[in-house]
């Protein structure tokens, strides 16, 4: 933007002054508010319920590739991940692997994310997919841990 006259300068400053909120009025308005209400949509509640169901069935820190494929398929069918994320999730762990041998999918996903970071490659599409898969696996792991802790507490009671 080129400013050619002092008239334009004064209009810019006027616009800036009117765009700046009056913090005194905002603070007074915030003091009058007592609580915020958050409402989850039915779809959000269903997604959370589906995630908990999946987490009750699978342990991402100790699962076979066959179990990973089953979990990935459930996540995709329930709309919890995209098809691209499902492909990234179900990438084979190595070249010659036993599909029934259990391994830690969370640790493997962490290694992939760390490798992306070491290369400074965190903004590429593939790196973002791998980061998304890691977040999903960690969320399922957390829910899985909570389910097993709840089960242990019930058994001890």
UniProtKB/TrEMBL annotation:
Native species: Paraglaciecola agarilytica NO2
Lineage: Bacteria, Pseudomonadati, Pseudomonadota, Gammaproteobacteria, Alteromonadales
Protein name according to UniProt: Uncharacterized protein
Taxonomy, superkingdom: Bacteria
